[in-house]
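From the pipeline queue, job 12 of 40. The input is one protein chain; the requested action is below.

Action: predict structure.
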Amino acid sequence: GLAFSRNHGRSWRYLRGQDYVAKVRGLYHPPRDWQPAPPQVLNNLPLEDYITCLGEQRIKMRRHGRVHDLLWVCYRQQGYEIIDLRTGRKFASVHDPALARTDGYISAMVAGGRQAPILARYGGSVTEFKLLKRAGVGGGRSRVAKMPVGAAPPGKRWLRKQLVTLLAACKNHRKLRPGQVIPLDDDWKTEGDWMGRYGKYWTCLCAICSPHNYRWGVGAGHVWYNDRIGPHHAPHDSIRYWVTWLATTNPDSLEMPEVYLNSRVVMGYSSWTDDRRQAEIDDHGEAYPKTFQGPDIFFSVTAPRGQFVLSLYNFNKDGHTGMNRLRDYPIRVMPGYVLPPHSGPRARYPSGPFAGRIESFAGGGVWKRFLVAGPRTYTVEVCRNGSLNAILAGVTLDRLAQRVDPYFCSRMQFFLANEKRQHAVRAFVRRQTHSGLFRPTARTQENTSRYTLLRRLCMALRAVRTLNPRAWALDGQQDNVRLLRLLLSRRPGAARLKKWRKRLAACAFAADDFKLWERQLKKLKIKSPRVIEKSLRWDQRTDDYTRLEYRVVRAYLKTGNPRAGTPRF
């Protein structure tokens, strides 16, 4: 709908679209004794409830010199509408025979001054309009905008300021409690290359083995999960396990696990080049009207004790035209086992705030990530929200640490290293907060070298991630991106090259630049998790290694045998 305020935001009024009547009737529990508004009220509402963007334009008529303030309201299916805020008159593109034939999905617009507005259509083209040409409004001259340049590496002033901020955040020991959810930055770069990058604790590849999911997990704790659709659906309807392409090279499709791919190659079902499979679960939403609430996808997963990154992967393989582009998924992550199967007719859909949203698939596949803490069960709701249907391709759990077991060490070594890391970061915080080096009035502050500030800031980011993960989730990720830019701007000499590579690998991992992270590990002569998982092979008996993943990885690292660690019958 459309919200507007007449008192500078102190209070707001809200207008629904003309299709809100069908949405109310499509609720799981419609309000009793509800009556829609009369037709004269409905006709004055916005054409559609789904508004994509707004634009303002002030024009001066040449004929009589009056100034008109125009409000452009753009929709997902109904084109655009122009509202004259002075007279209240409206013009809708769907009512013009010449414009009604154009595509109705407008994703963005630029309007201002006397220049002709520019409309961008999702799946269409960019269109330029001459507004009210008959009224004498001409298009002004436009200048060619300069292309943006990359951001410069941060200087010493930013390093000092950010170090003080991080140390202040370290003093507040706010560990994440079980049940809390913090959204993290989206990852559009990794695409379907998940092996060794996501799911280093637990992975669920949805519908890879339709009508079943494929699970891979080397974590010590047991991870339980359940996928289902919401309670508002037709009788005997259920979740769908779709496989669109059995084997493909599309980089946005998730990779098949190497053990499973090896079994397909040996049996002659695929090749080493066609190493991906496009599969997902969906809520069968295409069988229901767009104004129907649900069914939605509900995915419950239990996070073991500790802090984890819960990641969801989605990719629109159906294209960006017609009904297939109508995909807008609000995502809600809730603690507990919400709306289990057979909840009954009295069940209510959740009404809490959304933790994320997949608004457009124009960039390919996207990883939506959330910081959670266990032991606790979390339920992810992928809302259909008037889309063709709701889909989900993969769910993973990862620890926050860069070097996790069993890829870099054993479980006992990881536990001892974690305890050592806790003592190190606490000692670092005590040492820095009691020192006068980073006080704003200290004279030695200006004489500190950039390398020393960089080294201490890297340690401060580790401390914040350990002691105050909430602050790290809100600001620490962007700090890692800036540090990564600074590290790449200058390459040190041979004496500091190894330490530089270690810091570069840590920043690249925290900034989700996994390719750079793996290159630095290779130069440090360390096998990356991706190399390890890509080296495993089928043992001619089982193709999923369920509950054997940890033993298989550790046996491969000890013996070099890609089939070691499996039971011998």
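Job complete. The radius of gyration is 28 Å.
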